[in-house]
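Format notes (please read before filing issues)

Several people have asked whether sequences and structure tokens are stored in separate files. They are not. Every record keeps both together, in the order shown below: the sequence lines, then the token lines. Line labels are part of the format and must not be stripped during preprocessing.
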Amino acid sequence: MKVENPFHSAFKLQGKSFSSKEELIDFSKEISVEVGDFLTDWFDATSFVEVKTSGSTGNPKIIKLQKKHMINSAKATGNYFNLPENTTALLCMSINYIAGKMMLVRALTLGWHLEIEEPTSNPLKNSDKNYDFSAMVPMQLHNSIDDIHKIKKLIVGGGTVSNELLAKIQKVETEIFATYGMTETITHIAVKKLNNLKSVIASEKKQSNYTILPNIRISIDHRGCLVIDAPKVSDEKVITNDLVELISPTEFKWLGRVDNFINSGGIKLIPEQIEEKLAKIIENRFFVAGKKDEILGEKLILICEGVTNENLLVKIQQLKSLSTYETPKEIYFLEKFIETETNKIDRTKTLILCNIEK
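Then the structure lines:
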């Protein structure tokens, strides 16, 4: 009796086809230990894969994801972005986290021709190949602007796309989408288009809204946070700490994290909304936070990466879009932010480094 291979017949890795999972695993170990280990786990007899969360919204932890759910997620991405078998794809993110793992699962499931490159800050720099699809973090996109035409469709996750980067990508041919998701939802459950918009200013409202993928239902809880019902990728509803505004049953606007809320003199401030306004005048990385204050309870402060800029406070005070409550009361400059393993700003540890008590 002939046994079918547990991956799509059209699947290729680094241009090579495989006749068995054993052959594929052996070859993958030549690429990296991490890729070999993941494929060994993927093809074993268990029904789940253990995945580490990024730690951007809490301490990193190991969770179990059902393989059938990961396959369903892969199919949803293929259908939504019209990526059939023989799609050429580039994996340039770490295989240690869900985003990298899912690029490999999509290729195995859908029959893509996948190339794996080391997850550097500029993965296209030395490449002479073109791809139908890839995924990057904002830093990789920023550093790859001159070569991004080598990719037809790109999804960007793992961080916010700045206004500066948004302006740079408007006229590139590549279709670029921001994604919303997390490890628990097996990467993205919603997307929004980022470029080739008629007007960055006129489309600001449209840009800020995410559209959910098929077979997803969304609602909000008593805190105003997003609740995700996605039975094909999770057995339980996922209750997030993301404050959102529901635009329609299939569309939402992301406002910020409820655990980042700042209560200053009874006024609730959402850091992410303030940071969006400040991004127009601050070039380096920065974030706002609350600092313990005897009178206000918490006062709004600004933490900037880089050298001290004595003129910054004046610029901030002249920014008309900021209300009095949204104007930072203190500014701290730090040579280098502390980052998570996935290169996101670790706000909590960075504040500790500044001796700031929340």
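For reference, the curators noted about this record: Residues 200-206 have pLDDT under 50 and may be disordered. The first strand starts at residue 12 and ends at 13.
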